Automatic annotation (TrEMBL):
Organism: Streptomyces actuosus
Superkingdom field: Bacteria
The protein, known as: Four-helix bundle copper-binding protein
Gene3D superfamilies registered for this protein in UniProt: 1.20.1270.360
Pfam families hit by this protein: Csp
């Protein structure tokens, strides 16, 4: 039984989503570093998607962990940012870091969509 003023433990699904968000955030940060080292106009366009995704996944995880009433809406937005980032990364299929990032983004988007439809 939960005491008044305390929060029930996170569901397994929410924990998994937080972990997916944080993993995606980390991979996006690594991929940004890789892009900066390579330079080029194509890399700079991908950077926008990476930055959006990195920030959105971190914020989404934070909101879920603190049980924000806006977490479901943030999960829906996060899924969109992850989808855009995965698509941007897929524009460079010969780059293994980009493919790793796209995979992480797709996994996070899927989990965030499920959380957006769930009652938090």
């Amino acid at each position: 039984m939960t005491q008044p003023g305390t929060t029930a433990p996170m569901s397994k699904e929410m924990q998994d989503c937080v972990e997916a968000c944080m993993a995606c955030h980390g991979v996006c940060e690594e991929t940004m570093s890789s892009c900066l080292q390579k330079g080029g106009e194509a890399q700079m366009q991908i950077m926008r998607a990476l930055i959006d995704c990195s920030e959105m996944t971190r914020m989404c995880a934070d909101m879920m962990m603190r049980r924000s009433p806006l977490a479901a809406e943030m999960c829906a937005m996060c899924a969109g940012a992850c989808d855009m980032c995965a698509e941007a990364c897929m524009s460079m299929p010969d780059d293994s870091q980009m493919m790793r990032c796209a995979d992480s983004c797709r996994r996070c988007a899927e989990m965030c969509r499920a959380m957006a439809g769930a009652t938090m």
